[in-house]
Amino acid sequence: MAEQSTSSNVNITDPVFNQSPVIKDAENVTINYTQPTSASSSDEDKWNSMIKLRKLCISYLEKEGKLRLQGVSAKEEIPVVHPIIHQITYYDRDTVTVDERYEPEGQNELFKKKIKKEVCFQDLLDQKSKFISIVASAGSGKTVLSLRLAKAFSLLQRLCIHLKFMDANYEEPLTLRQFLLENMFPGHSEEFYITCFYWMQKNTDKIVLILDGLDQAQYSLEKISPKINYNACVPVKDLVFNLCRKHFFPNSLLIITSRPHAVLYLPELARPQVTYALGDLSVFNSHELFLAFADEDLWSKIKKSSSQMLSMCRNPLMLQMIISSNIHPSEDIGDASTPTRLFATVMENLKGSRNIRFPKTMDDLVLKLQVLAFTATNNHKVIITDKQLKDADIDPTTVHDIIVQLHAPKRSVNCNLFEGSTTKFYFCHQTFQEHLTASYVVYGMPVEEFQAFVETSLFQEHWTVVRRFVCGLLFDLESKAVSGDLLQKKEILKKYLTQQLEIISEKYLKSRQKYSDVDEALKGRLFDLYACVGEGKDSSIATKAAEHLPRKLYLPRPMNSNLVPGFLYVMKHVTKQLDVLSLAVCRLDANSFHEVASVIKEMKPEQIGKMNINYNKLQPSNIDDVIGLLRVVRDELWMLNCFIDDDGRIRIWRVAKQDERKKLQAALNKIQTGLEVVLDFDITLRSQK
């Protein structure tokens, strides 16, 4: 590596600079740790410099911290909302593989077995550890959360420097002072930098350093770097490694955000003491954020026509796409009422993006991306290398909004659909990869290859989400003219999906007879098939699924909200009597339960023998939904611990919910029924007529 030339903003008479050797091979050279160098500034100069630095940091945070949605203007002040935060156990080495292996589950599935406890934003501010990491998938709000943490720490009179790795991929060696101050806040006097850096060395307990997006670093921290002093001029990776090891600013708080894989493979000496994982926004927060960019009418419209979209709004990136797709709908696709339609609308809307400068048409680009996505998914990868892009004749610098080259130092890029580096790229959200993969299967595969793929691969767990998109693309064609290869593929998929529904339903019934507990794996496979039916909205397939629906049906525990729409689409076609329908421990929220109840209450009187809704997360407003079920259930309706208060705590029937209890009793009195409503083991309501 070439030595750094003297720049115009460096005073070579500065004694600090003169003590800073350039390290050409930092892995083999060790520099002894030294005490902070002295500064000659007066106390007043030091004070003024630090006030100025604090203002610069806060000004940066104010500028960067404004939440914006592409193509949508905020109507009002953006509410302060945060994703659900969990402290997790992390370094058991099996969370993800080194290449971030593709699995058809989301963030919550990835971490659900590693959760220690749920924490709040204030817990992060009260942090006692000196080094923490915040991990999440792209689009989950890592950067927004880190900027808000920085603002909050600044209000607590701590000096907080927020730095994005994507803006700090410097090729030349740097001193720590250049890395944190001079390059971050350019254009100030040498005396200013010296004074501020000296204060930072003397007051490490007052410093918070937030390094955002470790996965966007162009270098690797997997190898151990030498212990160096404050004034050494070394590659950036060595500066970051020594920050992680707390050789620099030992009493400061260091926070690193990243996708999971980059933090997992830090060497043991440089690992965070505590790791937090971001989940989704709460239902309430997603509604708040939605209303800042759209209105209640749009929320109500989506809730009525395609409420599964509201559950997707709990991811900030998905919320952006849903609002944008409804405000700027595609004429060719219609309402973005399913995930398949949503992503198809996004891809259509990208045709008008000012950032796409692909030399050929958007259709040509999408075809190339479909092949890349399928290859990655088929190989169990979520990484696309620069070689693969080159082989596909795609230059990432010409297709912003589709692929973004994140690692051009000191360059502002618009990160929307992809994240990556000059050596590897990621789809900004895994669902983009899955949708493009499905598009290749539907539009790119020859019919013979498609049939073999459906028969041997498509119904394996690896293709779960892709399978839903394939069904959506082939079955949800409505009035469009379907002919040729697409018609053949539709009939092939219809045949095999119907066969799978029959096979898995039969296995489910046998597992119920043989075991006391439901085989959860079979249950999951069955409801995944229902999700495929709902995505395609083909009534003939839904009728077949309803014919094979088990008479004793127990929903998955917990029930993923994305599975609800497909299950309900099948339920609308059920004509037979059901002995048991159990939603116990499904952890359905108020919106999902309202959706379920809205369908079930339209079934025939007493069509369900027993129903169980124990241990869900209902709100007082759901009592009307429960009342709607009374006419449909014949024998017993169990409702233990199914209502919660605003803090998420269970509301016990014997000490609370008296109004709801009275409404239930009044509703029972109005109908001629022998139904028993079990509120607790010793509280049962019956009709008093």
From TrEMBL:
Residues 137-291 form the NACHT domain. The keyword ATP-binding does not apply. It comes from the Eukaryota. Keywords: Leucine-rich repeat, Repeat. It holds the Pfam family NACHT. The keyword Repeat applies. This is NACHT domain-containing protein.
